[in-house]
Here is the input.
Amino acid sequence: MGLSVNIRKRLNGFSMDVNWRMENEFAVLFGRSGAGKSLTLRSVAGLIRPDAGTIISSGEVLFDYAARIDISPQKRGFGYVSQDPALFPHMTVRGNIEYGIKKNKNKKPVLKGKDKDPEESLNYILDAFGIKKLGDNRPDEISGGQKQRVALARALIGRPRALLLDEPFSALDAPLRAEMGRLLVEIRREFNIPVVLVTHDLAEARGLAGRLIIYHGGKVIQEGSPEDVIRSPASEDVASLLMLPENRAVFY
Here is the structure.
């Protein structure tokens, strides 16, 4: 259930050349805005085509520039959630989540011990995300945090091979971000799939990551457990990034 990313991309004068891999764990891509984190995640999701390299998930080649392999986003089997939950405004909460079943690559419902039919899966995931009472509401009738819960539920009900999260909580206030972080930990435990989260918030990264992957200037400059990276920065760039004013509180 691992993910291997070895890609290069040049876009609007910015050059990215990154190489990292993860197993079935919670990985966080951490760094300043513009370091290449979101560009990497969009490349993994199939929304952007790298200029070179490979992307391999659980032994399956999803992208190989040299071999001319480029699996479409719909067939890659990832759940992808960004800062914009991108819910369909004309659909109810239930309808938005049901759409995730239709996108399911393997046409299998969510697992919890055993296969469930689509209706059981829908009711189960509405319960799991605490949004069952909102099933008949439309997106303009629910809060920002509730919208992100719906977006996560829609991504997961498709039974993805991994969950890709591009700063999905950056527009939320601190208490709500903390609540959503706890939800992510529960998601990871419940669904037992790799999770990749993009963030430039060190407290969030430290609290969630099993593997911390540090980005700087379009490159990965260190990776490891949050404790190891914070205790032993591999370079001045890593140390300066960790000690930015907004990050210093993480050390106290």
The chain has a mean pLDDT of 88. The longest helix spans residues 174-191. The CA atoms of residues 5 and 55 lie 5 Å apart.
